[in-house]
Every structure is written in structure tokens, then in C-alpha cells.
Amino acid sequence: MSENPIDRREAVDVLLRCSAAALTAGLTPLLGCAGNGSGPGGQSFRIDLDRVPAGSGLTTTVRNQLVIVLNVDGAVRAFSGACTHEGCELGWNPRQQLIRCPCHGSAFDPHGQVVKGPAQTPLPEFRTEVRGKKIHVRIG
Amino acid sequence: MHFRRSTHRPSVAALARLLLPAALFLPAAAIAQAPKEYLYVGNSLSGDVSVIEIPAHKVVGTIPAALVGEHPDDIISNRDGTILFVSRLDAEDVIAINTETEQILWKLPVGGVPNHLTLSADEQFLFVPLFDKGLLVVVDLKTREIVARPTVGMGAHGTVLSADGKSVYVGSIGGNQLAVVDAGGTHEVKKIIPLSEGVRPFQISPDQRYAYVQLSKLHGFVVVDLATDKVVKTIELPTFGKPLPAPSAKGSLFVMNHGLGLSPDQKYLVANASLSGFVAIYSHPGLELLGTVTVGHQPNWVAFSKDSKYAYVSNRLDDTISAIQLANHKEVARIKVGHYPQRMTVAVTKRRGGSSATGSREE
């Protein structure tokens, strides 16, 4: 899934925020300069909260970056969606409540920590924020 | 000579009049179809199995994630096409599926992360390499018990049965080796063939003189002389003047190529260039490059139609299957399947199982 581009209204809003950020040097917008774009604060995107119901996970691609978004134990988190072993795309196993790799079986807990190899290193986590019915994720 | 029709036997027309209305009221699923050839595609991330009719190259059904799930890895069929065996990474088990009903027959925990499956020649034993344990689990399918667990090397991944049925070869990614296991009586390791890198998909020539082996970072494959256990040739795939993708911690770049298939008629060896998005078709046994075919993103596996007319390649990042006509090296169809298609198998069967919409990742 490639996240939907921002709509026109939000594009204007983003433009205003980016302009404001440029004018107030150093005060970068919390989530970067574009709904799905890049800027001083890195790239960001948003996703409807109802697409990630409680107990579930969703893998998506934003500008060639795999991202897995979880809604587990009352917290929304986002991690790199690429396995730290060989880079395979990760999936969510709802029965196990684990992030699993479909290539060699690595497993990560909902905090991105390795619970089963061959992966050795945890998943990089991205900053997330829930605003209303949207999850905002900043990557990069 | 005159033939007299018996008055006690209904005519064909009378039979048809009798049976046709009843047949019309039977649910479609209850009417077993004539045997047809199907490609079964394990979609690792959507957890389902796409069923593609050959040679129509259309998805005609899906064995749903509710039945399979748990990140299926390999999928193979028995010789008469009645059963599919699927290794499931998350559940660490193997399931058997009836191809006619598309229902699960049984599940068997195997005690580790199962990878690529192989059946013994008499189909009594199922060989299951455990990636995380470095073992080859041998399952007796009559009793459904694990009867042996020889050590074959960490990262046990691929398995291939020799043409004479006496040996099963097991490639290991971590151990950089091929282990040769007695496939019949003892199930013991007969010898180890060391290689320079992790062993990815491989094939054994039908005369058992050579192994064709993809290695983790080789853009091609090596030819191993099985009499001396030495690499005697390295076949490099074309680069078309472009630099090779460099192995990197970002993205799926630790394995250059994944997918090497020998056609049933043994005339073609098809090698995936996974990071370059094409397949190379070689003559066999001559290993002359016959042509290349551009396919989708990250081709991962190779399967063939029974008549060796078509090769099928799973493009796992595109959620598609490329159907390639081997005689003229043309892609004749690209078929949308579930998410992250990897392993595939071909079976001729009478399927009457229900089908559901193919699960897929959002685009």
C-alpha cells in the first residue's frame, strides 16, 4: 500500500506550516513538512486509525520505506517494516501478537524487540501521534 | 446381425432425462471437476494460497488465510496431486490440504521454523528442514511421527531429492554447505559439501553428477561436481551493463538471487535474477544462455507446467506470477495473486473446493 497523498486542503495547510517553519528557523513542524512528504523534520504520513483496529498491525510502503503500524495494548506504534535480518517485508501475526518475518521466521514483540532470530537487532521505531481519527507517523 | 435393445435397460436418452434435472439442482461445489492442472501459490504475507488454472493462467480460487495463515513458506504436492503440504513459519508446523476439497487433513508441529519441503520417492517420508535448529526433520507420513532429526547445518533451507530417490540434499544458509542425507533407511548424513557462501535454491542434475547452486551474494549459480564435491564452473547471469545491486542492511539485499528450477523434461534450467527483476533461461545440460525475460519485482521461485511448456515465477514484491513460455522466452501472462507470493507447486487434481476472494496487501 502506498499511502494516499494529502488532499488539497491539507496541502495548503502543510504549505502554510512549512512556510511558518521556514520563517521560524529551527522550529520544524512536529511531523515534517508534508502529509506524506519530506522536509526538515523528515518524511511523514498519516493513516486512518480505523484501518489499524485494536490488536492489529498494518504494513505499508511510504516512498519505498516499509513501515509496520501496530495498535496493541492501547498504544499505537510504528516501526520499520523490513526485517533486520535480510530486509524481508514483515507481517503481523494476530494470534501470536508478534511481528513475524515471512522469510526465515524472525519474531519481534510489539515494542520491536527481537524475540526470535535469526534477526539480531530490534526494529527501528518511528515517532507516532494519534490526532483524532488519524495516526501520524514520521519516518526518516 | 440385428441388435435388439433390451426392454429392461433405459436408453441413454431416458437416462439423461432422468438424471439431468437432478444434476441441475446439485450445488456446483458438489460436482467434482475433471482433473485439471493447477499452479498453487503460497502467499506468505496474506497467508492464503492462490489457485491458478494451467494453461488458462487465471486465478480460479483461493485457499483462504483462515485455513492456511501463519506465514506459509513452502508448498508442495504429492505425485498424484491429491495432497498439498505447506510449511508454516509462525506455527512451526506442516499442514496437509486435500486438493479436491481444499480442506485441511492434518497439522503436525515440527519443533522449529520449517522451510522447503521434499517427499521421499515412495512418499512415505516428508523431509522438513528447520531453519532455526539446523536439523532435517523426517516425518513418517504413515504414522505421522517424526522418525529422525539429522543435523544438516544452521539455516537449513532447501531440500532436493536425488533422481534415484536415495539421497536428499539439504542446503544451509548459515552453514554454507550442502548436506547429503540418506533418504531411505538410515536418514543419516552421508556427506557434507562445503561451499563458500550461504546455499540458496539449488537443483541436482538427474544423472546426479552435478549440483546447480545459488549462493547468497553470487549473481548466478555454481556447478558442483558431486564426484569431487568441488565447484567446477560458475555461471554468472547477465548484467546488461548495469552495476550489480550491492548487499546492504537496507532492503532485501542479502540474497542476490532466489529461485532456480529444472524443467520436468530437463531441457531448461531457469535462474531468477531476484534483485534485477529478470529470469535467465539456460539449456540443460549444456548451460547455454538461451534468453532472458523481464519479470516483476523480486522473482523468488520457479515452477513448471507438467509439459515443460511454461515456467512460473513468483514476483513477491509485485504480488504477481509471471507465466513464461519457455520455447520462445516470452512472458505470456502476469497474474495477480495474494500478498508476497513465494513458493509454488503444480498439481493435476479434481478440485471442487470453494474459493474466496484473494487477500492482498493494499496498493
Describe this structure in words.
The complex is a heterodimer of chains A (140) and B (363). With 140 residues, chain A is mainly beta. Helix content of chain A is 11%, strand content 36%. Chain A contains one helix and ten strands. Chain A has a six-stranded antiparallel sheet with strand order 1-10-9-4-3-2, with no helix packed on it. Chain B starts with 11 loop residues before the first helix and ends in a 14-residue tail after the last strand. Chain B is globular, with a radius of gyration of 22 Å. Chain B has a four-stranded antiparallel sheet, with no helix packed on it. A four-stranded antiparallel sheet of chain B has the order 4-5-6-7, with no helix packed on it. Chain B has a four-stranded antiparallel sheet with strand order 8-9-10-11, with no helix packed on it. By secondary structure, chain B is mainly beta. The interface between A and B is medium-sized, with 26 and 29 residues.
Assembly type of the chains comes to heterodimer
Number of strands of chain A: 10
Question: How many DSSP H or I helices of chain A?
Answer: 1
Q: Give the SSE order of chain A as H and E letters.
A: HEEEEEEEEEE
Give the helix/strand layout.
The complex is a heterodimer of chains A (140) and B (363).
Chain A: H1 8-23, E1 43-48, E2 56-62, E3 65-72, E4 75-80, E5 91-93, E6 98-100, E7 107-108, E8 114-116, E9 125-131, E10 134-139
Antiparallel strand pairs in A: 1-10, 2-3, 3-4, 4-9, 5-6, 6-7, 7-8, 9-10
Chain B: H1 12-25, E1 36-43, E2 49-54, E3 58-63, E4 72-77, E5 83-88, E6 93-98, E7 103-109, E8 118-119, E9 125-130, E10 135-140, E11 145-148, E12 156-161, E13 167-172, E14 177-182, E15 189-194, E16 199-204, E17 210-215, E18 220-225, E19 230-236, E20 260-262, E21 268-273, E22 278-283, E23 289-294, E24 299-304, E25 310-315, E26 320-325, E27 330-336, E28 341-349
Antiparallel strand pairs in B: 1-2, 1-28, 2-3, 4-5, 5-6, 6-7, 8-9, 9-10, 10-11, 12-13, 13-14, 14-15, 16-17, 17-18, 18-19, 20-21, 21-22, 22-23, 24-25, 25-26, 26-27
